[in-house]
């Protein structure tokens, strides 16, 4: 196996810890949802094992896969979404973390196949516009991964609502991808609530641009344009 042993150990630890954030922010039910992280300098990533309860996750239970999605190290089977994560890492070299959830409000938008419109400054800050919808895709092959990559390539949003399914987010680190998943659910809920009493007011495109630019600079994150 290529990849520094200590680097992989540290990544397993941090990815294991980040899974607790999905529970803390109420983004997952039962064993649904998963986080992965690319191993720096190697064609590998670490990911949650399949069907393991969040309470039972340990750094040792996090498995290591190659970029084809095949298990390289670990005693458990990798997440059933591993092929999708692997596809993203193969096609988006700038991505180092991927998160998947079925968080309630965001998945409700996905069930309708409706993008979340940019009607909050927090959305302009984090996503630089609307959160787009990706195609309907069955689990198992490359279809989900291809849908994520095709939807997010050239898009400022790091979150995509996969139609009738749920949320995938990407980030320059696993933590950044988790943040995007938390923020995606937060704005999905707020915009849903706003809809109950009328039509939310859009933000002018110029204002979206300046909010996005300012936020990305203030927080020192790389521009994705
Ligand atoms: Zn799913």
From TrEMBL:
Keywords linked to the UniProt accession: Metal-binding, Zinc
EC class: isomerase
SUPFAM superfamilies listed in its UniProt record: AraD/HMP-PK domain-like (SSF53639)
Domain of life: Bacteria
Record EC number: 5.1.3.4
Keyword Zinc set for record: yes
Family: Belongs to the aldolase class II family. AraD/FucA subfamily.
NCBIfam families on file: PRK06557.1 (NF005123)
Protein name: L-ribulose-5-phosphate 4-epimerase
The species this protein was found in: Streptosporangium pseudovulgare
Name of encoding gene: araD
